[in-house]
Amino acid sequence: MPADKPQLRNLIDRAITAIGKDQLEYLSDKWLVPPKDTNATYSNVVPSDALIRIAADPADHGQLVETEVAGETYLAYAAPTSDGENRLFLGILSPLDTIIARFWIRSN
User: Fold this and answer.
1) From CA 34, how far away is CA 26, in angstroms rounded?
2) How many CA atoms lie within 13 A of 28 on its CB side?
3) How far is it, in rounded angstroms, from Cα 75 to Cα 64?
4) What is the pLDDT along the chain (108 residues), one digit of tens a residue?
5) Which of 15, 43, 61, 73 could be disulfide-bonded to 96 (CB atoms 3.0-4.6 Å)?
């Protein structure tokens, strides 16, 4: 995380802390632990074309980008976690409706 973005780091840390046991298990099963009955391999590729496009464009790094995935509007965020030739990226992809629903309900 860029050192000049402490508020973003704080927000991401809070979001990670808020992940419950069931959500963590789902995420682990979905993304981290390949099924035992497959010949899965590990890769350095993010399983999202939208995040790959954002990571490829430095102008989009470190900011929310509205994008469409399977006909649904998402907010995406990608930022390098380090400098150098083979950088790793943090990527977040969330449906816009999920993000704004909480605020929409409060305002109505």
Assistant:
1) 12
2) 7
3) 6
4) 556 778 887 888 888 888 888 988 888 777 767 667 666 565 656 568 888 888 889 999 999 999 998 899 999 998 888 777 777 788 888 898 888 876 765 555
5) 73
> By C-alpha distance, which of 8, 94, 96, 93 is closest to 52?
93
Domain residue ranges in the chain: 1-42, 44-108
Which DSSP string do the residues of 21-46 spell out, in sequence order? HHHHHHHIIIIIS--TTS-----SS-
Q: Indicate the residue type of 21.
A: K
Phi, psi of 79 (to 5 degrees): -150, 145
